Amino acid sequence: MKRTVKFFIVLLLLCEGYAFAQGTRVTGKVTGPDNQGLPGVNVQVSGTTTGTSTDASGNFSLNAAGTTSLVFSNIGYVSQTVPVNGRSVVNVQMAEDQKTLNEVVVVGYGTQRKTDVTGALTAISTKEFAQQPVTRLDQVLQGRAAGVQVTQTNGAPGGDARIRIRGANSVLGNNDPLYVVDGYVGANFNFVNPNDIETLQILKDAASTSIYGSRGANGVVIITTKKGARGLKVNYEGQFSISENIKRYDVLPAGEFAEIVNARATATGSNLPFTSDQIAQFKQNGGTDWQSLVFRQGSGQQHQITLSGGSEKTTFLISGNYLNQNGIVNNSGFKRYILRTNINTQINDKLSLRLNLWGTRSQNHNTLDGGAIVQALAWAPTTPAYGSDGQPTFTDPIGSVYRNPLDYLYDQSVDQNRTGLNINGGLNYKLPIKGLSLDLQYAVNYLNAQNLNLNGKRLSNNVPTASRYSSEQVTLQNTNSLNYDLKVGDHSINAVAVLETQQFTDQNFTASASGLRFPQLGYDNIGGNTAATVSSGYSKWTLLSLLGRINYGFKDKYLVTAAVRRDGSSKFGEANRYSVFPSLALGWRLSEEDFIKNLNVFSNLKLRGSWGMTGSQAINPYATLSTYGTTSVAFNNSAATAGVILGNPGNPDLKWETTKQVDVGLEMEFLNGRLRIEADYFNKNTTDLLLNVAIPSYAGGGTQARNVGEVENTGFEFSIGGTPIDKAGFRWETNLNLSTLQNKVISLGGLPRLGQGTGVGGGMSSTNEFMLMPGEPLGSYWGLKYLGTFKPNEADLAAQFGRVPGDPRYQDLNGDNAITTDDFQIIGRAFPKATGGWNNTFTYKGLTLNVFFNGVFGVDKLNYTRAAALSGSGDARQFILSEIRDYYRPGNETSDIPAFTRTYQPFTQSSRFLENGSFVRLKNVSLSYTVPTGFIQNKANLRVFFSATNLLTITKYKGPDPESARVGSNTDTAIGIDYGSYPNSKTYTLGVNLGF
To answer: Cα 818 to the chain's mean position, in Å?
Structure first.
């Protein structure tokens, strides 16, 4: 790497020395509106690659011929081109760019001035995350846009994240937003490198998203990547990080644990597991700290090199990114490689061509939840980690009935490898009719997914198992659009008409084997086995879309946007294959009215409202068709005979889920854009909700997908931002957002309720952990209401349930003096009521400090990790957490931690282990310094930075991380359970950015 950097430096010096041997030295100072020096301003000799940046005081120095011009540019200021005219000193004062008034934002299939946008759109500037060590798109989105909830459910490197825009609409379908990258619709956000982002817009209301029709119901994230510019530029950024646990569970030391175990045995009339001598030895020598054996200090590094340049007609950009992270759980990690190139060429004044290519490779190793983390809180601290043979102890005589936590770390491999390739090219041609242009774009997206699993001898009871899943997915997209721009007097029209097709195919193959003869070869050789199964699959769907949109403006203050899209999907039967998604939006720029102008208060004041429809193909291909399965049956004591049986019945009447949304918004700017306020109210109603409805056994059994339900999402969104201070070289930029959400099931097609399970809890759950019910939100917890312990004066009441004082007490809903599933009720909600973020950037000369908070409010979490370690039942068997010190006993009868009794019967699926998951987190603190260019002979820009992520978390949640959860992002009806979740970590990063 050092040799590469030196090579680029020498090359640039040689080129510049040759081109400007005859130039003269030009110095000067760049100031802002307050006459203070501006650091970091880019100063470039026009038409060349020669340039520099101003130092901390705004000074610069470079070689330039007296007949050339200097181009001064900086984010937030109006660029200037100043002729040298033979001068040796050139001073420039830059004016602030009223960006919010003239900014052009990307919308669906086009662009608009921000002031002309009539829908609810949030643009995230790259400045907002430039000072933070983000490695994925979800880290960019989290806390930066009102109405966008990002939850890092798996804190492992490369772990899963749940991203929701204005709530969740679908039960069967995926509620992830639609990602559009450089015009390719349906991109995978995991493959987007934040360092490659040029612009990022979030479309939230139906007026903005209806242009994407059947896939716009969950919101749209539009990303354009960086392009090259004239002149050669090279940039390198390197980051190095270490990570540690935010928090660990407080567990009993070995000696005290042994005393608690003996106390329980005494109370229940059992033999004492530990002698007094053993307890004394444990108190003197300690025991096994299982959490320290499972967790470690993580580390990571990221490197990016970007090369860009070109001529007046052709520009290019090539970037390469390498990320390697070792997680805080032993033997877990993530690697990613991304290579991107963008080429643009202007053939003539009519025709331009573009070609974007990117390739990615990611590798997850043992980054899933559960396993070792659960067992670290289940195995007794009195049990040694290793036996006399040097191998991990095989069984725990006191604590867990499962395997040693170390076996889950080192006798198991869970690998996920993803290889992606995207080729996206197009042309734009200006037709002879003024303002009319034709744009053609073709894209090919390829994804190869490999899931590889191995359980060794120890985890599998000496029957090693392995499996391999391989999938190849190919998406083809063609987008043809006509764009028309016309401005006549006070009237302006922008129109677009699009024909778009997309085709997706998936071919997959699965092989599983047990009894591996050579387990040391892992999943790479599963041929030698005692039993194996093989399966394969194929699916395909196509989408045909016609769409149009018209933006009309009168005097730049009365705005109308009308759009309609007609989608046809092969997933549905002929009768319901096509659907139409219209929208209408109105905007009124009150700040252009004289009665508002005369107030001299607003730089911009806009009232807008919209209505529209979007849809969802919330079914898999072939869901309208009845399926068949295979079985084996023995007749007359003969060998088993293979056969075919009827599977789930199809439903040819299935149709699109449809979401109607109303939005009302107000935008305000004061002090020439230094203060910005935006507020929205929205109401989303999804009808024809797709649900799997159980079929009676007499009718064949199974489930059938039907359009029977309705879900509603309503909420308010607020954002405020600006530059409170910009004086004497000190600048403070701040952005604060807050959004509320009320999610509610309106109807289940006549069903009173519908259970939703996860399978996460294993034996800890008596029934489904979640319940869909009209009037309640998605993700409603279903369980028993814990009333504490039976107190001494409640002995008679306890006896009616077969209990004694000190036993756990639960609400008996039906009054039958028995606690059963009939007593289950809604006990909490997994959807937060509000989310927010606050981003602050302070700059003084060459120093920049970034402080970023995010928060989640009004959310519950079912803490099964704590339940397993504190229930003293099931697989864990004993009490591990230090909380047990306060258990109910004579002299401590006020405690609600149950006593040690023979009648003790806990229920973990209860409000006892339902905790407040709200939190406020100091997500990032970064301090950077831009080195004055004089230190490196005005040939390069150098910035060094230090960052701390997840430095502080304020929460009442008793687990290590209120954000992580065991259930991933593929469902919104069963979320928020923490059972061995891989927690997010506290990370410290040191980095350098070097540009030539």
So the answer is: 43
